[in-house]
Design goal:
This protein is of the alpha/beta class. It has eleven helices and twelve strands.
């Protein structure tokens, strides 16, 4: 009885206003006010502080919100599990992913996945890690492909694989002339040899991005204070600038899965243990993934374990 029309209550919470909630629900404000008055009458305590603008939940309202949220989650889980039982090979997987990883990873995975699971549709939403976190929190996507470390403690994180962070140099860079390495392969570079590039111009990812923090720590370790030619939030932009003969940069190895991206460039593994980050699946804590989402995740995991997935 207390949960009848719970979407009305949630709309008031989200909009922090009865009038705005009524507009959102396409009902009249008096009707929504009467609903709330009846609900509070049944519970016996006020759920909102009417004196606050915007509306604020009372302590009783916070308890009720927690209870309703739990009911919504359980209803979603029930619907999902019943749907899975009826249709295990059909459905839609909604994925959040960064644009650069989407551009290199999905063309390799999607065709093979559709051959194996032709009845499962894939819905892709691209965005930054901050945007993906918002998508997950609002349950706009089933899961996101994330990397650690991250500061989101409301998500469950499942490991996929470790990805090396590579030093990227144009093949014609004169500093490579006296350096012994196998062209076309990913080679190791010592700290001493890396320091020879200290006076180079660097294209770096923007501050606040995990890859920037990882690389900045290594630069500090090498006592290099780089001449920064450009800061960008797009890894593919950094690759293309170096490819066109300007500067050096750092990139995740996943960015060069496509052979075209390797053209005119050399790549090196730095440090021991090597610079790397952990890539995995993130989804909202308390949620359960559908069987077809799990199928896609397992497909990515199996594919990542294939020797053709990582660059040799």
């Amino acid at each position: 009885m207390l949960f009848k029309n719970y979407e009305y209550f949630m709309a008031i919470v989200e909009n922090q206003s009865i009038s705005k909630a009524a507009e959102h629900l396409f009902i009249s404000q008096p009707s929504l006010s009467k609903y709330l008055k009846r609900l509070e009458g049944k519970i016996g305590v006020p759920l909102f502080n009417r004196a606050a603008h915007p509306l604020k939940l009372t302590r009783a309202g916070e308890v009720y919100l927690s209870y309703v949220t739990d009911i919504l989650r359980k209803e979603k889980l029930l619907t999902q599990e019943l749907s899975d039982l009826q249709n295990e090979e059909n459905g839609t997987v909604s994925i959040g992913i960064t644009p650069w990883r989407s551009s290199v990873l999905l063309p390799l995975i999607f065709p093979a996945f559709k051959v194996k699971y032709p009845g499962i549709s894939i819905a892709i939403t691209e965005g930054t890690h901050q945007e993906m976190a918002l998508m997950l929190d609002r349950e706009k996507v089933d899961f996101c492909i994330f990397h650690l470390p991250n500061a989101y403690n409301t998500f469950t994180f499942e490991h996929l694989y470790y990805e090396k962070i590579l030093f990227c140099i144009n093949k014609k860079n004169p500093l490579l002339e006296n350096y012994s390495f196998t062209s076309g392969k990913i080679n190791r570079m010592s700290k001493k040899d890396f320091q020879k590039f200290g006076a180079s111009q660097f294209i770096l990812l923007r501050k606040g991005q995990n890859i920037r923090d990882i690389c900045q720590n290594y630069l500090n370790k090498c006592n290099i204070y780089p001449d920064i030619l450009l800061e960008t939030s797009n890894i593919i932009t950094a690759i293309n600038i170096v490819k066109n003969g300007m500067g050096v940069t750092f990139i995740p190895e996943g960015a060069i899965l496509n052979a075209e991206e390797r053209k005119d460039l050399e790549f090196f593994i730095l440090d021991q243990p090597p610079l790397e980050w952990e890539v995995g699946i993130a989804y909202k804590m308390g949620n359960t993934l559908s069987s077809y989402s799990k199928n896609f995740i397992n497909f990515i995991r199996d594919f990542s374990n294939n020797s053709n997935f990582t660059v040799n």
